[in-house]
Amino acid sequence: MIEFHNVFFSYQPGKDILKNINLKVNKGELLAILGPNGAGKTTLIKHINGLLKPQRGYVEVLGMNTKETTVAVLARHVGFVFQNPDHQLFAETVEKEIMFALINFNFPENEIKERVEKILHELDLIEYRNRSPFMLSGGERKRVALASVLCYDPSILILDEPTIGQDYRQKLNLINLINKLNKEGKTVIIVTHDIEFVADFIPRCIIMSDGRIVADGPTEEVLTNSKLLLENSLLPPQLVEISLALNISPPTINFEKLVSFIRKIIESEE
Amino acid sequence: MIDFFMGMMRMGIIEVRNLTFKYANSDKPSLYNINLSIDKGEFLLITGPTGCGKTTLCKCLNGLIPNSYNGDFNGEVIIDGLSTKEHPVHEIAQHVGLVFQDPENELFCTSVEKEIAFGPENLGLSREEIRRRVEEAMAMVGISHLRERSPYELSGGEQQKVAIAALLAMKPKILVLDEPTSNLDPFSAYSILNLLFNLKKEYEMTIILIEHRLDMVAKIVDRCVIMNEGRIIAIGPPEEVLYSDIVESIGIGIPKIVKLVKTLGLSSRPLSSNVLADILKVKK
User: Fold this and answer.
1) Contact B204/B190 with Cβ under 8 angstroms?
2) Are the C-beta atoms of B4 and B59 separated by less than 8 Å?
3) What percent of chain B has pLDDT over 70?
4) Which residues of B touch A171 (CB under 8 A)?
5) Cβ separation of A266 and B264 shorter than 8 Å?
6) CA A154 to each of CA A29, A182, A194, B124, B265: distance values in angstroms, whole numbers, following the listed order
7) d(CA B284, nearest CA chain A) in Å
8) B277: helix, coil or strand?
9) Do B50 and A259 lie within an 8 Å CB cutoff?
10) For residue B223, is pLDDT > 90?
């Protein structure tokens, strides 16, 4: 449903930010993109909703070539939640913020009402509906930004650093919501530095470095390759670090597996 | 006589006594009856779920509350002998440096050197003294090689180091940092936390850190304070606090190693994988 074919992109001539990106994402997938700052992660995802167009190669989203499709058309299908919620919030109240896209996409009035109620509940924002988004905390503003995208039900959801400013419990709420949306058939792409969140919850993982995709596969495989992680300025997840310290090979990101490995170590000693 | 009693009470460099604070526009207090004594040279972690009051507590530690915020302030905060009720923020600020989440909001000069010199210049110090302080601050955080760069072209981690150096040039005894790593990639976060550990070890600075990445900080702090709904609910050495059941019950992200050791039912309380390896007698 999303395909990148030999995509190159640069903001300045001679300084490629994306270097020959090939990527295929199927409908209903849940994947994370990791990588150091400046790796090209944000540039890549901006190609999915057509904010940026490839200079060489092409990107297809739901069968549409992004070069031949306007951002307005793509936006109906690709919901984009920015890293910094202040880059997308502007309305006087939380409720108006959420209604904005629905009005623009010409939803009928009664449906707008229904959708707003539903999303305010789902994201635990009911008590803030008449408050200004700018009076809320960073974590709350992030939820408002998410609500303003989820309300129009795009089939592809892109989240840039969704866990920043969220505590552990809010992260659990976030992944529950993501899993629910994913089960309903939505494709979800998360760009993040939060390697623990990816290790715990996201099945497919891509690592970008210096404009290239350097790894793409099941998270259990990608995030247990500590050599690959360190080469790309990433720190291994805690469970991998523990596996390595205990000489467990191959290392694992699976808690239960690690518990049973350690039980074996203890038994072999006794 | 008074001196004698003060000596007996063994004053911390920060003393928080029966502190309750309610913001003017809020219907309930953000902090309830906080008591906390922090020793000189201590590295203290404060953590807890969103809205627990930790940022409000930080603002009390440099006098921003009660001096710049309206609200009901009860109790007392004494910083290096100065009560924040009786001394203005600019005076307290010479004892406590406050570092925020987003360094970009604090930086405004055209070069790293000028950024760091700005504070000392405002103290009206001599040129030589300013120069000395700038050099020293850059050396302390390891950014001397960035002196001529513009803060805006630096990475987030480097910017955060510039913000910290700018505070160090004011020679505070205490640093308070409110989630200084949350916008940084893991490598930069790690280098900032390492830097804090060195400031404590090499320069005996008192460091108060608000942080969610407990796995990274548990190994380097002396004490943990856990807050929930405006109260301190646990305080003590990290291995005691992070292994306590109360911490799990309020839903903060405890380090994986703690979860693992609890599940295995081991009696020791390691906080690093190397210590766990020693306990299990794994050959290296």
Assistant:
1) no
2) no
3) 96
4) 253
5) yes
6) 14, 12, 24, 58, 46
7) 8
8) helix
9) no
10) yes
Gap between the Cα atoms of B205 and A77, Å rounded: 53
CB pairs under 8 A between A and B: 90
| Nearest-angstrom CA–CA distance, A82 and A103 | 21
A165 in Cβ contact with A138 (< 8 Å): yes
Tens-place pLDDT, residues B140-193: 888 999 999 998 888 888 888 999 999 999 989 999 999 888 878 888 888 889
Query: Does residue B111 have a pLDDT over 70?
Result: yes
CB contact, 8 Å: B182 with chain A?
A: yes
Instruction: Report the residue of A174, A194, A234, A262 to disrupt the B interface, i.e. the one with the largest count of B CBs within 10 Å.
Output: A262
3-state DSSP assignment of residue B270? coil
pTM confidence score = 0.88
ipTM > 0.90?
A: no
The CA–CA distances, whole Å, from A37 to B92, B183, B188 equal 36, 11, 10
Residue type, A11: Y
User: What is the spatial distance between Cα A187 and Cα A93, in angstroms, rounded to a whole number?
Assistant: 29
Fill in the amino acid letter for B112.
Answer: V
Instruction: Give the nearest chain B residue to A199 (CA atoms).
Output: B256
Q: Does A231 contact B at CB distance below 8 Å?
A: no
DSSP state of A82: -
